[in-house]
Amino acid sequence: MGRELNRAHSTASESHQHQVTIVVSAFAFISPLSSSMAAPALDRIGEDLHIPHGLQLQIVLSIFLLAYSFGAFVLSPCSEIWGRSRIIRIGNALFVVFNTACGFAQTRAQITAFRFISGFGGSAMLGVSCLACLFLLQIINGYQMGAGILSDCWHPTERGRGFSIYQLAPVLGPALGPIGKPLQPFAEHRNLLATAGGFISQYTTWRWTFWSITTLNVCIQAIGLLILRETYAPRILLLKARKLRAHTKNQNLRTEWEREDRTLPKLLRISLTRPWRLLGTQPIVQLLALYQAYNYGMLYLLISSFPTLWEGRYGMPKGVASLNYISLAVGSLIGAQLCGPLMDLIYKRLKQRYSCPDDRSAPPEFRIPLMIPASVISPCGIFLYAWSAEMKAFWLVPNVSNLVQ
């Protein structure tokens, strides 16, 4: 019965697959957007809340990522107990409340605490751009809820197509965040209302940075309530069994997930410790986690260096300087749309070469080959960016290097 249910989800209508993919991608886009959107406003935040420049001010930006990292170790395993859609909505609600609270913060302690809790809630839709890592963690632990939902909806041979949209979210969010600054209709600057958000940020309060994110997130949450349904097969079976028991009055209709030995404390202990055990004992998980930590760390290192480079070294106004973030977004867009279909093609070819009879026998490592050229190209882009910035080369050169990496 469980296999039939999984098969039913893999053969869901294509329109529903795309609807779910877009909504899940929107959820995964919004919280990384918040993580970096505060970057250009850090100076104003420091002035208003009397936070010294340097480490203490950077903590306001990076504390979100700390909670983002550890929150996934709690919320994602919980989705295996209470279902993916419920945990996503709870986490997103937590993110909305405390992201809004960031806009009302009056002290350093308040904004730091609010950023941490909002990051914890936002981690419910934590995304990783590396598909191999997603599928390994999904198979072992159901670790990424966004990846889990899409894996429930898309057939293994088509998942690259679905993930080509989803994997953009965690990269486009930080890349577009510093551009997509909030707009606040000041009467004396009404002529700016139709311009890019990066320009308008010069004339708004930093508090609207957080409030605009909340407004957008509430809209996404409303759409998610209409479209997102439970996709985790064991949870669906459990709900179906409960409905059948209520309808037939037959209390013997139970799933294997309702055994007496599957108590809530035991399930929590197993689910919450499994990611840490895998990270501590499985070399493949350790290597992929290290690789992704490097990629994500380099992304935020680049983002944090942009104001100094473009405003300080190149002398660009804040609005014009913010447009340079587009290079990261364009590179992510091109890479995702190329790699998704290519990954599906490689997966199918390797299945045929090694005579895998079905998708269950095909190892997730079949999705790794594209990481080889990527791991070579990315450092080249980093070196080109550093060299061109040091030499103060034509502004297009650093942007091309960002696009490449």
From TrEMBL:
A single GO cellular-component term on record: membrane
Protein name, as recorded: Major facilitator superfamily
Keywords noted in UniProt: Membrane, Transmembrane, Transmembrane helix
Membrane-spanning intervals of the chain: 20-42, 54-75, 117-140, 208-228, 284-303, 323-347, 368-387
Keyword Membrane: yes
Organism classification: Eukaryota, Fungi, Dikarya, Ascomycota, Pezizomycotina
Domain of life: Eukaryota
Pfam families: MFS_1
GO molecular-function terms, A-Z: transmembrane transporter activity
InterPro entries reported in the protein's UniProt record: MFS (IPR011701), MFS_dom (IPR020846), MFS_trans_sf (IPR036259)
Membrane topology: Multi-pass membrane protein
Location of the protein in the cell: Membrane
Organism: Macrophomina phaseolina (strain MS6)
Residue intervals of the Major facilitator superfamily (MFS) profile domain: 20-405
